[in-house]
Amino acid sequence: MSSRRVELWQLTLARLREFYREPGAVFWVFGFPVLLAVGLGIAFRNQPPERPRVAIVNGPEAAFAADVLRAGDVAEVVLVSDDEAARQLRTGEVALTLAVPERAELRFRLDPTREEARHARDRVEAALQRALGRVDPARVVEAQVTEPGARYIDFLLPGLIGLNLMGSSMWGIGYAVVDARRRRLLKRLAATPMRRSSFMLAFVLSRLVFLVVEVAALLLFGALVFDVTVHGSLVAVAGISVLGAAAFTGIALAVAARVQSIEAVSGWMNLIMLPMWLLSGTFFSYARFPEVVQPFIRALPLTAINDALRAVMSRGAPVHSVALELGVLAAFALLGMAWALRTFRWQ
Amino acid sequence: MPSSTSGPAIRCRGLRKSFAEVRAVAGVDLEVRRGECFGLLGPNGAGKTTTIEILEGLGVADGGEVEILGQRWGGGDERALRQRLGVCLQETQLADRLTVEEVLRLFRSFYERGRDVEEVLRLLELEPKRRAAYVKLSGGQRQRLAVACALVGAPELLFLDEPTTGLDPQARHRVWAVIDEFRRQGGTVVLTTHYMEEAAQLCDRLAIMDHGRVIAEGSPRELIASLRADQILELEPTASLDAGVFAALPGVSAARQQNGRHVLSVRDVGAALPALLEAIQAHGSAVKTLETHQPTLEDVFVSLTGRELRDE
Question: Is residue B134 less than 8 Å (CB to CB) from chain A?
Fold first, then answer.
């Protein structure tokens, strides 16, 4: 056995042991993403669009409006006084209030910044206008998309994998490095003939072990609970995950290279991860952001891994079609490690 | 191997190091011979740790030359030199969640040639604790593990920074026994300590440090002999007297005053005592307390600096 291999093996083992003997860390890495997926999956489960709640103000034509809305299953209706309607609107119990002083007048009250309120208004108005005699000139044909692959959870799951790889790599390594520096373990290691590159590489290798479990947990959960299937190759998913973990490990080592305290490293980690939480298209598409910032967003490692995973998982895209994303990840991995090796503070 | 197996284990000249405004090491020359145990003795803040860490290649000196086993730090193949060194730092906490055996195997993996992990566990009497997590170990057990990590690479030269600080006497004696064993096998040891018993017990030669300088150097016996005293006599008179009263007495080689007491280095107690009592009476005073003891390194330090070694 070459001694580099023994050294690397022992360092990697040490990393793995330190991790799995820390119960809290195990939960945050494996339990948290599954809980997140459960929560979001339930919140966005496929169901008939919910009927909005509408408060109708007591008055001459209130009963007529209520009958129309109830009959067409357009909305859930409560008949209340003017004051009570205003109160329920304010507290969000109803999406909008409606007063119908006469059949020729519909008085809506709503907060236009609430999307469900605008949506409810359109539905309620259309139903009442039709009941009052409006005729729609065109025939409507609507195809409903609910098959696996095109749902929100299909969009979400690859993003959660990417997000989780980022979080576990950054926190796991950031804390481990700064803690070892604080307790002067790094200094002690620097006094041995340990190869410094082995020390760094052991973080990457131990991440690879965790990532198999992390990614498998999320994929399995998605498949069993939400019927999310991987359309492309599992090998490609594994490869992208490995490169992603390497990228975040590189970044984490670079960030933790000189930091002395846990508080400082937490701050830096948050500073670096927050933009990616917001911009990288984990929970919603980054296409919503202005055109000018798109190249910047696409250069972020979380965007790269999310896009690559989505392409392979949801669309079954071949690996070479995500070469650009893989390049971004490889660049972060290499630059991060190189920076860490150059600037690392052992004392 | 030419230069690296002959010549002194350590040679250092004019070592200087400052932190901000503080001069931690202000020109230290040392030479440590192969196979000896060399001690840096001094109070806290004397510059011992700064010096030893520069020798270990962990700190960079502002000036001066250091040669370790014939090699210099920063001269290329540092890893080869580190293969030959064992280091025990002051106050290192190893990985909390790893067991004793795991920590030792980890350190063993860094060395090309090293000692058997089982043998080192046995040597430091850590076998019963091999599966105990580091976080659960007592201070003495942690320190023994730290020494074990320093020994597991089978070093030629062992650096120990305050190896027994904070240990109970039993744990201290165990560490001393291990250092003795290492020396019997031909190893060279450099240690820092502020315990004079430790220095006297373990070290062939000592450098006494104070304020970043070496103020005396030699074997414990030579250093004590430099006091030119068979006995140290501590005397408290009922009325205070001038120190000059005693210095000229027959059999007294030195006298000084400390916390209202007189401390005399005495060559010949038989000659000194009657003259002493006479002098006290002549100055209208009397003896309140009188103690004598064999001179120690503590007395050497006090006579050199006027301060006690362990005033922390």
Answer: no
Asked if residue A222 lies in contact with residue A183, where contact means CB atoms within 8 angstroms, the answer is no
- How far is residue A19's CA from residue A202's CA, in Å, rounded to a whole number? 13
Q: Does B73 touch chain A (CB under 8 A)?
A: no
- Compute CA distances B41 → A208, B58, B210, whole Å: 49, 20, 9
Instruction: Compute the nearest-CA separation of B200 from chain A (Å).
Output: 28
Tell me what ipTM this predicted complex has.
Answer: 0.88
Nearest to A204 by CA among A159, A253, A238: A253
Range from A58-67, A137-146, A198-207 carrying the lowest mean pLDDT = A137-146
CB contact under 8 A, A17 and B98: yes
- Lowest average pLDDT, out of A27-31, A47-51, B152-156, B276-280, goes to A47-51
Instruction: Flag whether pLDDT at B146 surpasses 50.
Output: yes
Interface check for B163 against chain A (CB to CB < 8 A): the answer is no
Which chain B residues contact residue A18 at CB under 8 A?
95-98
CA dist., res. B102 & res. B181, Å (int): 24
Residue A127 bridge partners (DSSP):
none
User: Could you identify the residue written with the tokens 């540092």?
Assistant: B78
CB contact under 8 A, A184 and B91: yes
Which amino acid is residue A169, in one-letter code?
A: S
Strand partners for B207: B40, B217
H or E element that contains A96: strand A96-102
